[in-house]
From TrEMBL:
It holds the Pfam family LacI. Keywords: DNA-binding, Transcription, Transcription regulation. The keyword Transcription applies. It comes from the Bacteria. InterPro entries: Cro/C1-type_HTH, HTH_LacI, Lambda_DNA-bd_dom_sf, Peripla_BP/Lac1_sug-bd_dom, Peripla_BP_I. Residues 2-36 form the HTH cro/C1-type domain. Residues 6-69 form the HTH lacI-type domain. The keyword Glycoprotein does not apply. One of its GO terms (molecular function) is DNA-binding transcription factor activity. The lineage of its organism: Bacteria, Bacillati, Bacillota, Clostridia, Lachnospirales. PROSITE patterns: HTH_CROC1, HTH_LACI_2. This is Degradation activator.
Length: 362
């Protein structure tokens, strides 16, 4: 009877470690580090089981190793493009290449790219939004051996470097600005509010809390897209269209609104077009405010009141942290890596008042 071939899963089970750990050790990945005991245990187990240890491919060009992977949920929103510009700017200055994984907010795509990391062998990984909860264990394991930075609200269960924005602050700033202008009947338009997108919820929550604190909790509304909208393949105008469609529905439900906030600038542009189509003046009849301060919001015809939170600088900081960690890691013995500091950079948002907000109509 033919004996079954020993697999890396067999080695992992016998060693008491994960399959990913076995793969990285036996393939002698140059960019990951394990304790000497773990390496010896895996190698000895592999030999005892008769596992065919792959021969390491020799890289002729050392520069090929200087690669940073960036996970993006979408590239249709200029916010993520601005983040990438910041990341790539620092990477280029330091001689690193950037490999972008556009997951399109698709769990299967995110899983595909995570599995690819074993062959891509990046020196560092940047997530431009929180990793999906279902892949948190895989991400945590990667973060134990490769420099890893998350941009956005860092999950408390992950001890990784983070460049953050407290997302309740932009929501509160938006609300305070509208309340100061006398708005009492307002709405917040958002993409799906799901567990996977906690940063969205925090922004909405901050907005609603300010209105409730001012005594207008009964006249502030939240209009969000259906959850399945996050699973639809995004197009270049998907968030704009979301803002447009949700606002049309909102106007049918509440015809007395004096202000509408969009989760981001692209949604705010959709809000504005829906209002124009309904023959409502911005800001004369309804004030509109967005968030991100993307390029289009500065154009005179748009002149969108928005929240600045220094997106390109966040990208630069994330890449700077990664490269510092790579240099620090390379200076230590490959098999005796010591714990290093957790970097935590938080940006303070700022209100940018332009032409789409004004005093509430009587």
């Amino acid at each position: 009877m033919k004996k079954n071939k020993v697999t890396s899963s067999d080695v992992a089970k016998a060693s008491g470690v994960s399959q990913a750990t076995v793969s990285m050790i036996l393939n002698k990945k140059y960019n990951v580090s394990f304790s000497k005991e773990t390496v010896e245990k895996v190698e000895n187990t592999a030999r005892e089981l008769g596992y065919d240890i792959p021969k390491r491919r020799v890289r002729k060009d050392n520069k090929a190793r200087k690669l940073i992977t960036v996970f993006c949920p979408t590239l249709t929103n200029p916010y993520y493009v601005m983040l990438l510009q910041g990341i790539e700017g620092v990477a280029k200055e330091e001689g690193y290449a950037v490999f972008v994984c556009n997951t399109q907010r698709d769990l299967k795509m995110e899983e595909y790219y995570l599995k690819m990391m074993d062959s891509v062998q990046p020196l560092g990984i940047i997530y431009t939004s929180n990793p999906s909860t279902c892949f948190m264990e895989q991400v945590k394991e990667l973060a134990e051996h490769i420099p890893f930075v998350v941009i956005n609200n860092r999950e408390d269960i992950m001890e990784v470097d983070a460049v953050e924005l407290n997302n309740s602050k932009p929501g509160r700033l938006m609300a305070k600005h509208l309340l100061e202008l006398g708005h009492q009947r307002a709405a917040f338009v958002s993409p799906p509010l799901t567990d996977r997108q906690r940063q969205r919820f925090k922004r909405v929550e901050g907005f609603v809390k300010e209105f409730r604190a001012a005594g207008f909790g009964d006249t502030v509304y939240v209009k969000s897209a259906d959850e399945d909208m996050d699973t639809v393949m995004p197009s270049i105008d998907s968030e704009y269209k979301m803002g447009y469609d949700l606002t049309k529905e909102l106007l049918k439900e509440h015809d007395d609104l004096t202000a509408i906030a969009g989760l981001n600038d692209m949604i705010a542009f959709g809000i504005m077009d829906a209002l124009y189509e309904a023959k409502l003046k911005v800001p004369g009849d309804v004030s509109v405010i967005g968030c991100d301060n993307i390029l289009f919001s500065k154009m005179k015809r748009m002149s969108l009141t928005t929240i600045e939170h220094f997106v390109p600088l966040k990208g630069r900081d994330a890449c700077d942290i990664i490269i510092r960690k790579i240099h620090s890691k390379n200076s230590l013995d490959a098999l005796e890596l010591q714990p290093t500091s957790i970097y935590h950079v938080e940006y303070e948002p700022r209100l940018i008042v332009r032409g789409t907000t004004s005093y509430a109509r009587n």
